Amino acid sequence: MEWLCRAHDAGGDGGVARSYLLRFSRAHERSGWLRSYPETTGYIIPTFYDYAAHAGDASYLARAETMARWEASVQMPSGAVQGGVISFAPVPAIFNTGQVLFGWARAHRETGAPAFLESARRAADFLVEAQDPDGAWRRHGSTFARPGVNLYDARTAWGLLEGSLVTGDPRHRAAAIRNLDYVLTRQRGNGWYEECCLDDNDHPLLHTIAYTMEGLLESGRILDEPRYVEAARRAADALLTLQRADGGLPGRFDASWRPAAGWSCLTGDAQTSIVWLRLFEMTGERRYLDSARRLNRYVATTQDRASDDPGIRGGIQGSDPIFGEYGPYEYLNWAAKFYADALLHEIRLAPGESW
Q1: Which of 76, 88, 121, 227 has minimal Cβ neighbours within 10 Å of its Cβ?
Q2: What is the pTM of this model?
Q3: Average pLDDT of the residues of the chain
């Protein structure tokens, strides 16, 4: 959380810096702290509210509200959120919009501020209008991911559901359900999801697989719909059997759940831990808690908590080893966010079990 605060300060405008990059990037025209990232700042907001409640530290409340107001200031006229960092040309992106809905919905619940409700309503309206009749989103995909359907938009549907809880608009809820139903049609019997990657549908990232699991599981919880929970659980159970002796998971898989990478995607590891912890909470099955704790400890072994470099100390790499394919030589704000979420979940569910 201290690293995320430094990333927030480094953004310089109220948003959270995308990452801390150890080598020069031509795309970003810099190394070190990159510019603020609307998508991930949006879902970092709830983490700050959660940590404020856990730690009793009001400074995290103030930061969360600052982030939410910054998000409102950069929202596009259409209601969409742009893809990429704030210095890139603003192009509307479905997934990014869904992720910022988490922040606006939570900020409105916490503060009651009408501005956050209005931003949530406009974003949700954009998602409804952009959706195809079968429930998929094919238009306004991020220019930084492959074109076409993305099943990890299940997490967009979850964001839309969270938005519907504050807007009260039945169209928002119905659109979320249409997408979730579409996602179910694209899952194989072994739990694997079709069209579920930023760049390689045949070997999807654990990160985007976990996005899909999260979206289905949490939407199923909100809607009390077992079909969505089971669709998440099938994939989560397949991953249970693939956890390595060190507690980590491979960064990619093929359609038979065979590992397709020799490196780990630490963001996906943290997200999978959250899914397993939620399943433990829902089912009481100890195997989920035990595997999640092992996964959290694996990620802990990659975290440098003593570095003199403030961009490294406390941060979470994109990959382990750091030169792996996902976010190479980079400390990602969303990796830190999901790891903090995983630890907060574990503390809540197993408070008496020490490391």
Answers
A1: 227
A2: 0.97
A3: 97
